[in-house]
Amino acid sequence: MNEKQIRDRALEIRETIARAAERSGRSGFDVFVLPITKGHPTGVLEAVARAGFEAIGENRVAEAETKLAELGRAGVRWHMVGHLQRNKAGRAIQTFDVIESVDSVRLARRLHSEAEKAERPSIPILAQVNAGGEEQKSGMDPAQLVDAIGEMLNLGHIRVQGLMTMAPFTTEERVLRRTFTTARECLARCQAELPGFDGRTLSMGMSNDFEIAVEEGSTEVRLGTVLLGERPEGRWI
Ligand SMILES: *Cc1c(COP(=O)(O)O)cnc(C)c1O
Question: Counting atoms of ligand 1 from 1, which one is nearest the CA of 225?
């Protein structure tokens, strides 16, 4: 994919988002598009930046580090969207501007202490919630989310900006809708019950389900395939 192709696809996607946002009584401008460049070579990341996007998402620390070494920051914010092991928290905050996949209080504490060590004032994060209730999915249990975020609010070197969720891998609209509704309700509950919490971001929706996610209140969609085409087979480099 080159810059022109990405721009063309982005236009179509933004129209789809605008229509879905209107159905939820909002404007398409309320929805941020985060291109997910995992699995693609650095040339694609550069093209994404030139096409006018402000941020990119990657799901592995090592892959992002290699790309960053090759390319520099490319004038965009780097978002971590994949599962992050606690022992990589220090490396993650060197590479990423935002960590969207904080799936435990223990990881949040580790990010906080690594940020403190690195003298980074505060790192924007999203708390990942397992809104679909799948056993194998990362993310916190919706029933424990308010308490978990309550604890995160005491960690001065992280700033919880909202929630992230991944829906089950299915085309069943009912299941997707229920997952996104659960995530939206989780965010509303945190806002209502945690006075110190001012998170507004709801990162939900990927290539196969972003339209439904936007109808259900998503403020950020994470798009790989639909924007950048299939990821190349095998190793990404
Ligand atoms: C890969 C990935 C995406 C994008 O996936 P597509 O289906 O290609 O749009 C979004 N979010 C996360 C967390 C991912 O790992």
Answer: 8
